[in-house]
Amino acid sequence: MEPRPLSFYLLAAFFVLFVLFLYGPTLTIGILSFQGPEGGLTFPMRGVSLHWFRDLFQEQAVGDIWGAFRRSLVLGLMVMVTTVVVSVMAGLAFRKRFAGSAVLFYLAITSLVIPSILVSLGVGLIFDQLGLPVHWAGAGFGAQLTWTLPFGLLIMFAVFNRFDKSFEEAARDQGATAWQTIRHVVLPIIAPSLIGVALFGFTLSYDEFARTLLTSGSHNTLPLEIFGMTTNVTTPVIYALGTLTTLFSLLIIGVFLAGVAIMGRMRARAGSDAGKGV
Which domains does the chain have, with CATH numbers? Predict the structure, then answer.
């Protein structure tokens, strides 16, 4: 076996440092959240316990942690569903060129390059000028769609660019209507991609800060609540909250990945059964 070149070890060391830089802060927060009852916000740790996790579920002197969590969860689900539906509809529409399609496409993705705080400010001002309440379920919802929809559109455009139209032609030859073709042919084929768009929509919304800062009104979402806690909470309870929210995010990702895996097995089984039937 030939010895590995020096460049391999240098690249490996660089990758390890990159991973530590990327996940080190999260791991540090996770470790410090298990401080003992007398522990503080820094090392060294003073014992190991679940005290701050228990304290997190008690009534807090400041903020509304669980109310903010519920708002972020509801908002994330709203954004997720809207992103999936609009992305699929846009992907189907853009399969054929139409007048102004290029301009509409660039307008749709322009919000990705506009500073998020300016988007938040602009949406908040529009709602205010229209006499509408600036609320997380209204202005915040709209501001977050300017962040999630472009990603959903780009994913669906890539999916439909590779989509084999012969499947639809075969369905129409069998007498299927346009809606039946979409429901029974197109959607099952692109289902894994829809799960990816849904995951993008939910996770991007759940941790969005800048685009919600000026559009949430008087009720904070969870990222805003955590930011507010950094100025007035001096115990590891904030670390416990960070650990739980991180685990919740990983759980959501795991659920979506499990859904993709189950769907893949079902499709493989259906293909196998069809092959046996032939």
Answer: 37-277 (1.10.3720.10)
Cα 205 from Cα 209, distance rounded (Å): 9
What string of H, E and C letters represents the secondary structure of 68-124? HHHHHHHHHHHHHHHHHHHHHHHHHHCCCCCCCHHHHHHHHHHCCCCCHHHHHHHHH
Confirm if 202 and 76 have CB atoms less than 8 A apart. yes
Q: What pLDDT does 206 receive?
A: 92
Structure token digits, residue 126? 């529009």
Joined tokens for residue 99: 């007048």
* Cα separation, 95 vs 161, whole angstroms: 8
Per the DSSP assignment, residues forming a β-bridge with 35 are 48
Segment 35-83, tens digit of pLDDT: 998 888 888 888 899 999 988 887 665 668 889 999 999 999 999 999 9
